[in-house]
Amino acid sequence: MTLLDLWLSRSLPMCLLLQSLVLMALCFPSASMCPKGCICQRDPHLHGINVTCSQSRLKEIPPSLPVDTVLLRLDHNQIGAVPDQTFHGLRLLRELNLSYNAVETLGEAAFSGIEATLQVLDLSHNRITSVHKDAFARLKARVIVDDNPWHCDCALQQAISGMAHNHDAAARVLCRSSEVRDQEGRPFLAVDTDLCNLAKRTTDYAMLVTMFGWFAMVISYVVYYVRQNQEDARRHLEYLKSLPSKPKKPDEADDISTVV
């Protein structure tokens, strides 16, 4: 056996091992990339990773998600908030499931960075009462918002108007509470009042009432001040009148007689 044959016989198994390790690294994400309590599997059709964190008792969104995540399941947890820029690095994300959590509100940049690629966003069965008016403005995804205790106000009306391509989702928004009487329990699209102008009118009315209150207080103070001064002047005049008259001196009387 020549030296070349000996070298090949020893190098070939090592090459095969390295090739296998490379294939495994490509097909299966490393454990360090996958958040604790989640399962990460590479999706050969979508050329990315499916991350499943369902029923993991999570109280917040995992901070270290694989950058090539295409499907993210965070349903049936205890997540209470979606901080701004949370998904900013997930530029391949197509589906995001946040259903059955405890989310109460959504900020302007809650879904920043995934607007172009996201196709499905499930926010059903949460505790969402209010959202920023631009929370869904740039999303092209199908948004599911069923079963949330919505407070129907100006911001929600603006957010819904930005979901023209999600008419079905908007139709499922029910008002748990509202700025308008007798709207509780009714679909939000049934509200035919401009809530933004209503809020403005309410603010203007409150300002008018406040200004009138200040004006009335100033007038009351002026009236009180004038009356108080009049009373003091009257008392002083009565005091002067009550003083005894000063008697004339005898010399002054003689001088007057002489002159006469």
From TrEMBL:
KW Cell wall biogenesis/degradation (keyword) present: no
Coiled-coil residue windows: none
InterPro entries assigned: Leu-rich_rpt, Leu-rich_rpt_typical-subtyp, LRR_dom_sf
Transmembrane segments: 205-226
Membrane topology term: Single-pass membrane protein
Chief place where the protein resides: membrane
UniProt cross-references to Gene3D superfamilies, sorted A to Z: Ribonuclease Inhibitor
Signal peptide positions (record): 1-27
Membrane keyword on record: yes
A Pfam family of this chain: LRR_8
Any one GO CC term of the record: membrane
Protein's cellular compartments: Membrane
Source taxon at top rank: Eukaryota
Record keywords, A-Z: Leucine-rich repeat, Membrane, Repeat, Signal, Transmembrane, Transmembrane helix
Family under the similarity heading: Belongs to the LRRC3 family.
Protein name (Swiss-Prot/TrEMBL): Leucine rich repeat containing 3B
Species: Seriola lalandi dorsalis
Organism taxonomic ancestry: Eukaryota, Metazoa, Chordata, Craniata, Vertebrata
